[in-house]
Amino acid sequence: MLTHLYHYLLTTLVFLAVDLLWLGVVARDFYQRELAAFLGPVRWWAAIPFYLIYIAGILVFAVSPALASSNAGRAALLGAFFGFVAYATYDLTNLATLRNWPLTVTAADLVWGAILTASVAYASFHIGRWLGL
Questions:
Q1: Which residue of 13, 27, 103, 112 lies most exposed, with the fewest beta carbons within 10 A?
Q2: How does residue 73 score in pLDDT terms, banded at 50, 70 and 90?
């Protein structure tokens, strides 16, 4: 059980490092420009549970099946699909319901969700192997 907790915590660190680099450095100006009408201060009480739940989803839906089959490529592929579906749920709902939601943000997020989640799932697979899972 403790090994699984370490796996979760290390995966969380990888995810946060990559996603915060994207949000805070690489795409910061893009999101500020495209979403200026929607942005406010970060509500950490909502963001933190999202991250914790999402990372659990990566482990359950992408990493665990890949570890069971000893296939790192499967982790990446399942991670890409899980990320695409999750980000599509958010972005396509916004596109459908929010006035002036930018299509460019939806497109960028769908690609980013797939890339982020695939890379984190791949790294997490190797973390799991290193931990003996």
A1: 103
A2: very high
Its domain, for residue 74, covers 2-130
Other Cβ atoms less than 10 A from the Cβ of 127: the count is 20
| Count of structural domains, the chain | 1
> Is residue 84 within 8 Å of 113, Cβ to Cβ?
yes
Is the whole model's pTM more than 0.90, yes or no? Answer: yes
pLDDT of residue 86: 98
Considering only the C-alpha atoms of the chain, give the largest distance between any 2 of them, rounded to a whole number of Å: 49
CA 35, CA 79: separation in Å to the nearest integer?
27
